[in-house]
Amino acid sequence: MKKLSFLLALLLMAGLFSGCDFGDDTITLNVYNWGEYISDGSDGLMDVNAEFERRYGVKVNYRTYESNESMYTLLKSGAAEYDVVIPSDYMIGKMIQEDMLAKLNFDNIPNYQYIHKDYKNLEYDPNNEYSVPYTWGTVGIFYNSKYVSTEEVEAQGWDILWNEKYANKIFMFDNARDSFMIALKKLGYSMNTTNTDHWEAAYKELAKQKPLVQGYFMDQVFQKMTNEEGWLAPYYSGDGANMITGEDGKEFIKYHIPDEGTNRFVDAMCVLKNSPNKELAEKYINFMCETEVATANAEYICYSTPHTEALKELDAEVSENPMFYPPEEKLKNTEVFITLPEHINKKQKELWIQLKCLRERPEWWPFSN
Q1: I need a surface site. Which of 4, 90, 139, 229 has the fewest CB within 10 A?
Q2: Tens digit of pLDDT for each residue in 118-128?
Q3: Helix (H) or strand (E) holding 138
């Protein structure tokens, strides 16, 4: 009996020192995040949500989505209510504009001090009022070095995805923003341009490329590249790392960030304006910014961490790997996606539909049959 009392006292003390002032298992915190985007206890790492539940005595209802757009559509429809959501940069800007996010009380998020300055005051949330960076990464070219040389990729950059030599061995993103980003950067334009002529020119480039492309894919590209069904694929550094370092990883798959520049994306934690649990949601964000938690998440999901102390805890083979943490000269031409004006979003959507419906080679097709 004394032993039980002693353990109970320890648990109560742990609750006090961890800020556990909720302690009501009838309270549910609803969290909406990307799939496979949090440490879940596998690989011997922390089960992050289970630890938060234990620490604060509440329930975490954790659900996932596949894209920023599907997340936005669900929330906008009012079909579901969440407290914490983790969108990407440009979608955060859109949600701020539409008054969907709550301003954060950073008194409840003291661990924000560990977020590197390079990931604060970015264009989508310039005053750091609505979001706390969770992960970041780059878009680059994954290539099969058995068939495509490093020298070729480095010399040609984005142009290699238009090289007739690799016809039917090229994959492209199955989403408009990333595909147009590549074409815009190939042409020397900003991926956030509001010049409609630039978007028309980018469409023309993608139309030229289409006959060379085996298919437009998202996550399917992992297996297709490791199975050597294709040899060149632009993709996200974090997810794409599974092609190299995962269970089915192949040492012959390499990664390159083109010198013309690319997208340096940021996903960040936000609280929805209609959240009934705003303070608890902020404590969840603060918990996610604890060094041990941020380290577990970085180790599990393979995306780059903006957390300065977590970075120090990672193995050198990760923290010194240029795929995850490129040198500054590789990042100098990168941009963060921002929310585009509505008329540009409409233009992009129309051009993307036009591209996907394009079946025949356009009249300006430059290669021989």
Answers
A1: 4
A2: 999 999 999 99
A3: strand 132-144
User: What is the C-alpha separation between 132 and 286, in angstroms, rounded?
Assistant: 9
Strand pairing of 213-217 and 170-173?
A: parallel
- Token pair in block for residue 364: 């300006």
pLDDT in tens, 233-286: 999 998 776 777 655 566 899 999 999 999 999 999 999 999 999 999 999 999
Check the CA dihedral 55-45-139-65 and report its sign: negative
Mean pLDDT for 199-209 is: 98
Angstrom CA distances, 335 to 100, 179, 190, 332, stand at 25, 15, 8, 9
Beta-sheet pairing, 264-271 with 84-85: antiparallel
CA angle 337, 342, 348 (to 5 degrees): 65
Instruction: Answer yes or no: are the C-beta atoms of 94 and 72 closer than 8 Å.
Output: yes
* Spatial distance between the Cα atoms of 92 and 125, rounded to a whole number of angstroms: 8
Arithmetic mean of pLDDT, 66-89: 94
DSSP 3-state of 87: coil
Strands (E), 253-305: 253-256, 264-271
- Token pair for residue 172? 């492209």
* pLDDT tens digit sequence for 160-191: 999 999 999 999 999 999 999 999 999 999 99
Q: Kindly report the backbone phi and psi dihedral angles of residue 265, in degrees, each rounded to the nearest multiple of 5, phi listed first.
A: -90, 155
Q: Which two tokens stand for residue 211?
A: 């006959």
Q: Which of 59-72 are b and which e, b meaning 16 or more Cβ less than 10 Å from the residue's Cβ?
A: bbebeebeebeebb
Cα separations in angstroms, 26 against 58, 80, 213 = 7, 19, 52
Distance CA 152, CA 4 (A): 68
Q: CA-CA distance, 114 to 291, in Å (whole number)?
A: 8
Report the C-alpha gap between 76 and 273 in whole angstroms. 12
Give Cβ neighbours of residue 181 (< 8 Å, ≥ 6 apart): 139, 191, 262, 263, 337
Q: How many CB atoms lie within 10 A of CB 9?
A: 10
How much is the pTM?
A: 0.85
Distance between CA 288 and CA 296 in Å, rounded? Answer: 10
What single-letter amino acid sits at 110? P
In the chain, the amino acid numbered 303 is: Y
